[in-house]
Amino acid sequence: MAMLLATGLDAWLGEPKRWHPLVGYGRVASAVERWLHRDARVAGVAAWCLAVGVPVALLVALRGVLPAWAVFVLDVVVLYAAIGRRSLGEHARPIADALARHDLDAARVAVGWMVSRDTAALTASQVAGAATESVLENGHDAVFGAMFWFALLGGPGALLFRLANTLDAMWGYRTPRYLHFGWAAARLDDVLGYLPARLTALTYAMAGRFDGALRCWRAQAPRWKSPNAGPVMAAGAGALHVALGGPAPYHGQWQERPLLGEGDAPDATSIRGALGLVDRGVAVWLVVALLIGVVAHA
Fold first, then answer.
1. C-alpha span between 123 and 79 (Å, rounded)
2. What is the pLDDT of residues 56-115, one digit of tens each?
3. Residue 253: strand pairing partners
4. For residues 285 and 203, what is the distance between their CA atoms, to the nearest angstrom?
5. Hey, what's the torsion of the CAs at 60, 53, 55, 48, to 10 degrees?
6. Structural domain spans, the chain
7. For the segment 192-249, what is each residue's pLDDT rounded down to a tens digit?
8. Which residue from 113, 140, 108, 277 is spatially nearest to 206, judged by alpha carbons?
9. How large is the C-alpha radius of gyration of the chain?
């Protein structure tokens, strides 16, 4: 019921327009980085424990002193803050709409809010591919991963996953500054995302072309540099029967990336299709969670 209420709040209210908790957390994480940054893994581990371990421990302690009804309400609020299904659509649909009306400039601007690649050099198909990939990957990062850990550990689980995922996005880069300091953030995000990423890939398969999703997952996911994004995006591309991956421009240079999926070149329809996979997947997860809850309390 908590998962149902939290996803309902997200569908109704979306992300907070002001005072978003993850924006505030980003400022806290940046302060922790400035304080503890050293070119050493031990410094990164200490920073991760401070930035993630302390908030999660405080939430566990708070739940321990609250009555059951207040714990339920707190868990709903935490999961609502951790997921971003409506926000995903609010970012992706303007890209699809711009491509549908052949407004490439507007589509490039809109996709720039979702991806880190150089959007000015992208064709219409590459814009659609970037947006589709982002929706598929964020379906795990911003929706199913938090729901998985919430199902296991309640509010602290959702908070643990979302904060760890946020730190990976901030520190998990192979650059001179983060190669050692960000090692813990990158590896721990991989560990926490391992099971939910594969459940997300299976969810995409069930919500789309099942055989194509499994075929692409098996053949293409091992080639992707991220152990969790690979299964998610390969299965999602196969489920949509769309060709993703391939070269992409970053920081003025085109980088080679493995191919994902099969079939048609991406367009506005593939963006909407990816959003549909996420929406149908959320419905499936809620039904399964409800059934498990009923059986557990029978």
1. 37
2. 999 999 999 999 999 999 999 999 999 999 999 999 999 999 999 999 999 999 999 999
3. 250
4. 9
5. -170
6. 2-296
7. 999 999 999 999 999 999 999 999 999 999 999 899 999 999 999 999 999 999 998 8
8. 277
9. 19
Would you tell me how many other CB atoms lie within 10 Å of the CB of residue 253? 8
> Under the phi-then-psi rule, with left for phi > 0, alpha for psi from -120 to 50, and beta for the rest, what region is 250?
beta
Q: Which two tokens stand for residue 115?
A: 């991806």
Any idea which residue has 């609020």 for tokens?
77
In single-letter form, the type of residue at position 184 comes to: A
Angle, nearest 10°, between helix axes 155-171 and 41-48?
Answer: 140
77/82 Cα distance (integer angstroms):
9
The most distant pair of C-alpha atoms in the chain lies apart, rounded to whole Å, by: 59
Q: How many helices (H) and strands (E) does the chain have?
A: 14, 4
Q: In this structure, what token pair is assigned to residue 43? A: 């410094």
* Measured torsion, CA atoms of residues 144, 149, 150, 151, in degrees rounded to the nearest 10: 90
Pairing of strands 248-250, 253-255: antiparallel
